[in-house]
Design goal:
heterodimer; A: 221 residues; mainly alpha; 9 helices; 86% helix; 0% strand; B: 219 residues; alpha/beta; Rossmann fold; 2 domains; six-stranded mixed β-sheet
Chain lengths: 221, 219
């Protein structure tokens, strides 16, 4: 088993040992999303119009909730030193950690969002489009969030700093993710939006592991 | 006529190593070498730079100046290979509390690119961890966690051990187990550098007092 798959399997195993950590993230997503129909009222047209934006924002905030601990736990128990001293590229370790984060947050959020979309009165194609855009877009959130988590490692009030760093960088993904549902409602296809989301994910994949590794090395000094 | 003795070059050599932290010099132009089977004990008061030196040797903290070489080759040229030669024990044990002792050891070894295989039982036995093998680390005492971290070092089979206060939290039997493991490592040609406030109790160990800066034999 390579270092990459070992680290990925380790982080997934740690989540299985403490399922409550992921449960809190998903519960936050559900509660934050359901508050909107309760607050705005049963105006189906209004709810359907804001659904994509609300669900995407809630998914982004939920993903950020768990990012603060992405590297902090390793930093605090000394296992980050072992990763820094592993005889394989730290960039791959950064990628494995972000992939594990996506599997336990981005993936379930993408599957859960269409179910919650029903409460907003979204039709079938919109629900499918919502799930698809989140599936393609949430890896970018994990990668950008991972970078923010590495940059704020060891800092006081790192949670607030992390949000301040990550949220602006996630705006393009948010715009094209939420925009896809509006485009669909206007009768157009979402292929362009999904392609742009995929391109954003690829750019994040090609750049953030190096930046995360550099930030982790700096934190380890 | 007696032929001149050949001078054996050190396996591990540090030349003119300098380090600054927060603008303050921690150590300046430090030089020493270690041959196969040798142990260097780093001593000095709190804040004298023992941990900083260990971290610089490992490559965790970039030195301000100087070179670190292994068998005559500067380790900066191939840091991944260099990291593969190290076993690290820091102030923190580097263990995951939600994983068992065995899981921690197996995962750490795989992260180093190796497989524990049959050596796992020996490492557990060396530090009397067999009965704790399937216990989650968060349920262990500080000494038991330290023993687990030391078992990870033994399991690695790395030629150079870098140890920061290895005797911390260890009771007398565990200290004896550590000394046995260290002597076995040295007898096999391994090297070790340990920052310590306590006597390591290994005969022939060299000592580098970071207040004094010079190498001398451990009394």
């Amino acid at each position: 088993m390579s270092g990459f798959t070992t680290l990925l399997a380790r982080d997934l195993r740690l989540v299985l040992r403490r399922p409550g950590d992921v449960g809190v993230v998903l519960a936050f997503f559900v509660v934050a999303t359901v508050l909107f129909p309760l607050g705005i009222g049963p105006e189906t047209n209004v709810l359907a119009r804001i659904a994509a934006g609300v669900l995407w924002c809630a998914a982004l905030f939920a993903a950020l909730l768990s990012l603060e601990r992405l590297f902090a736990a390793d930093y605090e128990d000394g296992t980050l030193d072992l990763l820094l001293l592993a005889p394989w590229p730290l960039e791959l370790a950064a990628l494995a950690k972000c992939l594990a984060h996506w599997i336990v947050t981005g993936l379930p959020l993408s599957l859960l969002a269409p179910v919650l979309g029903i409460a907003f009165g979204l039709d079938g194609p919109s629900l499918l489009a919502l799930g698809a855009t989140l599936l393609v877009g949430t890896p970018t959130l994990s990668l950008i969030g991972g970078l923010a988590a590495a940059l704020t490692l060891g800092a006081r009030k790192s949670g607030a700093l992390l949000a301040l760093l990550a949220l602006p960088l996630c705006v393009p993904t948010l715009i094209f993710g939420a925009g896809a549902i509006e485009t669909l409602a206007a009768g157009d296809g979402i292929v362009t939006h999904v392609a742009i989301l995929a391109a954003l994910a690829l750019v994040a994949l090609a750049t953030t592991p190096w930046a995360i590794a550099a930030a982790l090395r700096q934190a380890g000094e | 006529m007696v032929p001149p003795l050949l001078e054996v070059p050190p396996v591990f050599e540090v030349k003119d190593l300098s380090c600054r932290r927060g603008g303050r010099p921690v150590f300046d132009r430090l030089s020493f070498g270690l041959g196969a089977g040798e142990l260097l004990a780093l001593t000095g008061r709190n804040g004298s730079g023992k941990t900083s030196l260990l971290r610089a040797l490992a490559g965790l903290t970039p030195p301000e100046a100087g070179t670190i070489s292994w068998r005559g080759v500067d380790v900066a040229g191939d840091p991944e290979t260099w990291r593969g030669r190290l076993a690290w024990l820091g102030h923190l044990e580097g263990l995951k509390g939600d994983l068992t002792v065995v899981e921690n050891l197996l995962i750490a070894e795989r992260l180093r690119g190796g497989e524990a295989g049959d050596r796992l039982d020996g490492a557990l036995l060396a530090f009397d961890l067999t009965g704790l093998a399937v216990r989650e680390v968060r349920t262990l005492s500080a000494g038991q966690r330290r023993r687990t971290a030391l078992a990870r070092v033994v399991l690695s089979q790395a030629p150079l051990w870098l140890l920061d206060e290895p005797l911390n939290a260890l009771d007398a039997p565990a200290q004896a187990a550590f000394r046995t493991a260290l002597q076995t490592h040295l007898a096999a040609g391994g090297l070790a550098i340990a920052a310590t406030h306590a006597e390591l109790g290994i005969e022939g160990a060299q000592r580098l007092d970071l207040r004094g800066g010079g190498l001398r034999d451990e009394p």
